[in-house]
Amino acid sequence: MTKTFALSAAVIGLLALLASRPAAQGRGGGGPQSVVVGQLGGKPVVQVAVRGVDYRDAISITDPAMNGPVPRLPDGHPDLTGPWEGGGSDNDIGVEGGLKPGELDTYLLPAAKTLKEQRSKAIYGEPYIYCLPMSVPRINPYPWKFVMGYTSKGLQYIYQLHETGDAGAHRVVYMDGRPHPKADTLIPTWWGHSTGRWDGDTLVIDTVGYNDKFWFDAPGTPHSERLHTTERWTRLSYGTLVDDFTIDDPGTFTKQIDLRFVARIVKPSVELMEYICAENNQIGIAGGYLNKSDASPIGIGGGR
Taking the alpha carbons of 8, 11, 17, 18 in that order, is the dihedral positive or negative? Predict the structure, then answer.
């Protein structure tokens, strides 16, 4: 098969999924493209009307319900369940996180910048083409939800479930006060090891132990196994959830990176759909394709 056909076939399932959803309002459709819905930490919170595949299932930013009160859990903390759309990036983690175009690249270490350039030329390098997890925050533009796991001891776990949860992958956030494993026993994984705590009405998720295989965005922004992320999730209103996302990775960046993403509540009539990437993947394992001369399947080491 040609490279063009193989690449398009790999994502045909995702396109079919999106096509099955109600059509998003087009740009220039008469509605606002973005609205400042409040302030948090001294910075404006902006809800975007339409951006790529985002927000097809979310309620309109002009819906009065958007500004309704924040629902609460039995223990008094905000109910962050959702489902939500948004709260992450896909096309450009820097720009979508509030940085200027090209700004994030100026913070890349030389080796990381070279790796990103190599990835941009590797047609088969994108891990998601092989139905491998996008991880955070890239997974979040697609529908997802927090699921609270209670026991007799209270809130012990929070699961983050995604409509594009490939191969049944899901994220676990431990809320029982446990520490991260010691560095010499921590096995790097796609989602890392996440612990959570409440800081007032904000859920703080601290994650270490990532592998270096997933890409932060479509252009291939990299990271290393030294990556440490901090997410501060704040439900500003009924319809708005803010993710203040901090990247600390001295193996990739010259400084700490602070980004902000905003999610919008999904319409009550919409449920998370089942999406199995491998069913339609023509160039991954299901298609018998594992490695070509122009790139490794996960784009590690420059994909060469």
Answer: negative
Please tell me the total count of domains within the chain. 1
3-state class (DSSP) for residue 274:
coil
Q: What is the pLDDT of residue 280?
A: 63
pLDDT at 176 over 70: yes
Binned at pLDDT 50, 70 and 90, residue 296 comes out as very low
164 has pLDDT over 70: no
What are the start-end ranges of the H helices in 59-183?
93-96, 110-121
* pLDDT value for 33: 63
DSSP assignment letter at 210: B
Q: Exposed, middle or buried: residue 199 (CB in 10 Å: 0-12, 13-18, 19+)?
A: exposed
The rounded percent of the chain whose pLDDT value lies above 70 is 76
pLDDT > 90 in the chain, percent: 46
HSE at residue 111, side-chain half, CA atoms within 13 A, is 7
- In order of 147, 212, 300, the CA distances from 125 in angstroms are 32, 13, 8
| Structural domain range at position 167 | 3-303
Q: How far apart are CA 118 and CA 155, in angstroms?
A: 44
> Under 8 Å CB-to-CB from 147, ≥6 apart: which residues?
81, 158, 159, 160, 161
Answer yes or no: are the C-beta atoms of 114 and 122 closer than 8 Å: no
Do 303 and 119 contact (CB within 8 A), yes or no?
yes
Q: Classify strands 171-174 and 43-48 as parallel, antiparallel or unpaired.
A: unpaired
Backbone angles phi, psi at 130, to 5 degrees: -95, 15
